[in-house]
Amino acid sequence: MKIAFIKTILMVLTIAGIPAASMAAITAVSDDFSSDTTASWISVGATTAALNYDGTSAGDYDDGDATAKLAYTAGMTLTGDGVKDDGGLRMDSQNTTAGDEAIGLTLAGTMEENESITFTGSVYNDNTSYSPYNAQLWNLTDDTLLAESGNTGVEALSHVAYKPVDFSVSYSAKASDEGDTLQIRFIESTTSTARDIFIDNFAVTSAPETLFAYEGFDSAAATGTDLTAVGVTGSGFSSYTNTHGYMDLEDGLTYADSNGNTLITTGKSGGLDAVVGGTRPLQLVLNSPITSGTVYFSCLVNESTVGTAWGYEFGLDDAIGTSSVAIDPEAGLAADSGSTWRLEAGTKTLDTANAISAGTDFVVGKANMDTGEVTVWINPTDLTDVSETAATTLNSTSDSGALNDILSFGYSLSSDWAGTLDEVRIGNTMNIVVPLVDTSVQTLTWNFSGDPDPLAENIAQYDYTSDQVYVGSSAVADTLAFNGGSGITDYWIEDKGAGHENCLFFRTINAHASDVGIYLQKMDFRVNDMNLTNKTRVSWSFDILGSDHAGISPSDWTVRINYGNYSENINVSDSWFTNSTSAEVQTFDFVDDDSTWTTVTGSYEIAVNQAGSAGSIQIRQPLGVGAYTSGDGIYLDNIQVTIASIEPVYDTALEAWAAGFGVYGTDAEAAADPDGDFLSNLDEYAIGGDPSSSTNNGYTATYEWAASAGTNWLYFVHAKRSDAAEAGLSYTVQTDKDLVDAPDWSTS
Q1: pTM > 0.90: yes or no
Q2: What is the model's pLDDT at position 636?
Q3: Helices (runs of H) and strands (runs of E) counted in the chain
Q4: Radius of gyration of the chain (CA)
Q5: For labeling, which of 195, 532, 675, 685 is most exposed (least CB within 10 Å)?
Q6: Nearest to residue 310, comparing CAs of 281, 331, 339?
């Protein structure tokens, strides 16, 4: 027998459908250790900790009364709650290294996005040494710390100040936690083997985050429209109570922190002009009153004119106003006579801050309905950590007693103030009232609602973003531009009826050239470089209307997309859309009757790791069809482009494997050899190679001759994937009688 080479049979590789893992919210759990449940706990630290059941502890704590804990006095023997000494869990420290011993309990169920998880309990001390610890919530799937208590210690049992200590850890699950397993942990922070951790009465509860009410003033009505006529546009509020003055729709407010996080904001805002005639309160009436528990609220406020009188107030209110009642928040902010922030907290326990100045402020509040404690944070520098980074924090200086039922959210300005209110949110967690823009999604909107009129006129190539002559390659990111071709062009804002009170009219006076069209330019098609590993989906939507003139053909208009780099000369010209990275992705028709709007939507997916970093979208009339003439034009409104990173879906197991090495597209095909080592991707996939490295060719086959019972045998050993069956791979050793003539491989 001549020595043969291994030949891998080429097959279509498929990925079998794998059912999605079932998900359920974290299962609530609690334990007072009235029985020995230590077997459920495990050591999770670098050093193995000893676990014991503390069944007869003199210091066991079980009454759960935070204000009347058992306290030690000289000569006293502690016996739990005086009713039963049920037991506790003890972690026996083994060494003098702080932080290397920890215990954990894995919980049933999995986390769900926006699930609010709370871990509470008590720690006591049976030793004669101070015992410090941290309680933690841990994502076991990702092996990451989610949240932890501050480092807390319990005095020695014999110490006169001995008292069991309660802890509380809260966390709001994020999208990245969806489906992951949660573990609760205790980690020691001791340098003595005598300093153990004693645990009792812990509980883990979870509840979905709930946004009780939201108002973003997102009406389609034009700015300047009376809010009374518009009515509630959000959710959770049943009506406006608007008295003593005129309130209207104004441009929306926005807020971003110093770390690049941006608050989700939409639509317009509710404005109050300075008028003579006293206060002008606006109340948003809740569908259901809030009567107990802890409630969070947030809003954007803009003080366009700062007065010197009392009367600027906003926050959670315990009343529904009439024509004679002013806003008097139970939990919120007000301005005193010196234009200084003043905390409103139940019975008006005051805490004041520096003077108010004109501009936009983001305010977040927390109110405990049961104790009356109120905290308000103003202008955080990190939206992911509001409570620790607020430029100003106001706290009620003492418990003011339980707050009255919350019935509404109020906003009021006195006669010498003017401002706007926006993005009012009321919910049960900090996270739900401080929603952030997902950095893997970008949404660009042009709705022309706040534009001046007239716009720049008689410009053939027009940069709408800056209202000037188009500046070519110097255009900034996310520019909306128009090309009227060789002739001059007019642009103006016009009212075309409900929902389109402010829209843009685009008209070319002379016959149009091939480049005439709408251009959305220099958009980030890589979504903060996430396209390196994910696909990018670019979606668009816009409203279009023909002006009922013969020069406009409403048929076969096109949307084309192109991507390149920010450094490239991206112009309003057809030539940039004729290269290899350009694609015509949609053809659409609209109605040319000067009254019927057509909404056009579409999307396009850009492959993983495409070379460009920016791109443009072109919307135009088809070449050679019709021609703009004087008076002809189109109306545009509500242009929106969403750029989102999406998980790639691979057609084959081999493509998914290649993506793990950064190999995509045609380079990931079975017969391709992107690293030039003369092994195809299929070969390297089958024998453990690396398609991106010419030096890693996987496991080389070996062979040897051996005699047995008078017969020479060839032993041929090759690598085989452990998941070969699932991957659809087949391995076959084939032979040929010689390697000179045309190969004639067989499995003989």
Answers
A1: no
A2: 94
A3: 6, 44
A4: 34
A5: 532
A6: 339
